[in-house]
C-alpha cells in the first residue's frame, strides 16, 4: 500500500520540482487561441516561412498552407508582382493548388493557415472551396473580411460556414508585414532623386 502511495505522489513531486517548466507551459497555453492545435501551430510556422520568402522576392509577405489530417495539400505565397495577376493572393494560389492535389474543388475536410486575415476575395474563395477551418495570424484593418470589416466565413446567409481561429502568432505575422513595408519606405526614400 505504501508503495502505491509513493507512486501516486511522483507526479506532484515532479511538478513542484519544475516550477519554471510549468510556468512556461501555462504561458504557452494561454497565448494560443482556443482550438489551435500543435499541428495548426506547425502549419502557421510554415506559412510564416513562405511569407518571409515572398517578402525576400519583393512580394507583400503573406503565406498560406492547406492541410488535412496532418498532411499538407498545398502551400503558397503572394505572387501578384511576379504573375501580374490581381487574384494572386496566397490563399487563392493555395486553393488552386490544393484542388489539383485533392482531385476536386471541394476541400471540406481541409484547414488553411494563413499569416494575414483574408480579404473579401479570399474569404469568398474559402467559402466557395468549402474549407472547414481557417486559422489566420495578423488582422488586416484595411481589408480583413473575416473579423475586422466583414464576417464572410461565418455569415449564415451564405451556403457554407467554417470554423475560424484568428490571432495565431499574430505578432510575428504582423511583424513580417511591418518590417517589409518599413524597408520599402526606407529604400524609396534612399532612391528618391534630390530635387533641392
Ligand atoms: Zn486576399
Short description:
The chain is α/β, with parallel strands linked by helices and 196 residues long.
Written description of the protein model:
The structure is a single chain. This protein has 196 residues and is α/β, with parallel strands linked by helices. The chain has seven helices and five strands; from the N terminus they run αααββααβαββα. The chain has helices at 2-17, 19-31, 38-56, 80-83, 90-102, 120-128, 170-191; strands spanning 63-68, 71-77, 111-116, 133-138, 163-166. β3, α6 and β4 (133-138) form a beta-alpha-beta unit. α3 runs parallel beside α7. The longest helix has 22 residues, at 170-191. The chain is globular and about 55 Å long. The protein starts with a helix and ends in a 5-residue tail after the last helix. The model has no long low-confidence stretch (mean pLDDT 89). Zinc ion binds next to α6.
Question: Which SSEs are present, and which pair or pack?
Answer:
Elements: H1 2-17, H2 19-31, H3 38-56, E1 63-68, E2 71-77, H4 80-83, H5 90-102, E3 111-116, H6 120-128, E4 133-138, E5 163-166, H7 170-191
Parallel strand pairs: 3-4, 4-5
Antiparallel strand pairs: 1-2, 1-3
The chain binds zinc ion.
Zinc ion binds next to helix 6.
Bound small molecules, deduplicated:
zinc ion
Tell me the distance between the termini: 90 Å
Strand order of the largest sheet: 2-1-3-4-5
Number of E-type strands: 5
Number of helices: 7
Largest sheet: 5 strands, mixed
Portion of residues within helices: 40-55%
- Average pLDDT confidence is 89
Q: Low-confidence spans: pLDDT under 50, at least 5 residues?
A: none
**SSE pattern:** HHHEEHHEHEEH
Structural class: alpha/beta
Shape estimate: globular
Indicate the proportion of strand residues.
Answer: 5-15%
Our Rg estimate from Cα atoms comes to 21 Å
